[in-house]
Amino acid sequence: MGTIVCQDCQQVIEHYDEEKVTTLYGTCPTCNDK
Questions:
Q1: In this predicted model, what pLDDT tens digit does every residue of 1-34 receive, in sequence order?
Q2: Is the dihedral of CA 13, 17, 20, 21 positive or negative?
């Protein structure tokens, strides 16, 4: 199970299928608009 987390607000953006447990950091639409 992979998780994408917003690096600004720490909100979980989405989960995706992955063999290993991984966490990727991105920016959610809410923080992107600021």
A1: 999 999 999 999 999 999 999 999 999 988 988 6
A2: positive
Question: Would you say 26 and 6 are in contact if contact means Cβ atoms under 8 Å apart?
Answer: yes
Q: In whole angstroms, what is the distance from residue 3 CA to residue 28 CA?
A: 13
Cβ-contact 12, 4 below 8 angstroms? yes
Task: Report the distance separating Cα 29 and Cα 1, nearest Å.
Answer: 22
Entry pTM:
0.75
Check if the beta carbon of residue 8 is closer than 8 Å to that of residue 30.
no
